[in-house]
Amino acid sequence: MCAAKDWVMNAVSERQSSVEKDIAARIIIVDDETAQMRALCNTLQDHHYATTGFSAPRDALAAIQQRGKFDLILADLMMPDMDGISLLKAALEADPDMVGIVMTGQGTIDTAVKAMKAGAVDYILKPFRLSAILPVLSRALAIRRLRAENAELTRRVREHAAELEVANKELEAFSYSVSHDLRAPLRAVDGFTGMVLARFGDQIPPDAKRLLQQVDGSAKRMAQLIEDLLRFSKLSRQPISKSRVNISEMVNTIVQELRNEAGGREIETRIAELPEVYGDASLLRQVFVNLLSNAFKFTRGKQALIEVGCDTSGGENVFFVRDNGAGFDMAYAQKLFAVFQRLHTEDQFEGTGVGLSIVQRIVQRHSGRISAEAEVGKGATFFVTLPKGGGA
After folding, report:
1. Greater confidence, 30 or 125?
2. Domain that holds residue 89
3. Quick one: 367 and 341 in the same domain?
4. In a shared domain, residues 25 and 96
5. Residues 6+ apart with CB under 8 A from 339
6. Up-side HSE of residue 323: CA atoms within 13 Å toward CB?
7. What mean pLDDT do residues 375-385 have?
8. Which of 367, 244, 247, 374 is nearest to 319 (CA)?
9. CB distance 325 to 302 below 8 Å
């Protein structure tokens, strides 16, 4: 018996707890017809709403001015002391988080529409039918919840924007520290090892000279790593200034500059007619400088062939830079655009592994994408896809 009694008591307790959870919406009902107002309060309480009723609009408004006390106001449209529209406006001014519904007879629907323009989210026709009232209340409270969620989301966005601004300032401070505090000792190491090698090179034992040269080379490489990391970090903060960009002219200029740097190397280049794009000229130049520099670099030691073209047949511009150089194993392609990831050793080809990361970041900021195809010893092709309109 005791076990059965305990079960019944627990069931009742759980039912009461469930009802308490359901009584979440607090509704204030305002109607100068007191009997109707009380009947509506009692009916909605049976459906787990917390109701408070007033027959005098000004008394209801005084209660509403204690902000946060009610979720929804259900007001009669035609009342002698204060009409429903005036009450609704005053109520929403007192507590903007509330939602309002007006009650009206069949002959005043036009006025109910005016009430909705004044801030009501819906209206209910008299005489009441419970099957009509409950869905309207549910929709209105759902609107309130959405408004609250949107307000919270907006607040969080503002907070995150403020946090991001602080983080950017900290990053700028870090960049400044890297630029000055780390470069200075590196310059000292580089400078002093150079002075020692220049002044005492003939007197230094071969093994010691070789070690000093390694120190000097490592200092130079570290300085380049810092420089590349700073350039990469700045890309996220650098504003984009878009205009029409002549890619054909840009690519031909870059190729000529790289030819001059390559000295007497025999390099065959095939550059197709390339379309204009809408983007940041300086950033897009960095994309093609990095891709073409890689093509020149990885074709050293063979008869180089470098091709640049674009497929405009689809809804996008798909530029490609193709070479017949060292290539790489596609099994490691996922590492290609990661910072400081290299698929060739320093002894084979110089570099820090940041160039392609910079290219990817710039392309993404132009609402584009980058990919690659390659085969070891047979070259590589990089594809840069950009929207024909230039992206967002």
Report:
1. 30
2. 19-128
3. yes
4. yes
5. 229, 232, 353, 354, 357
6. 22
7. 88
8. 247
9. yes
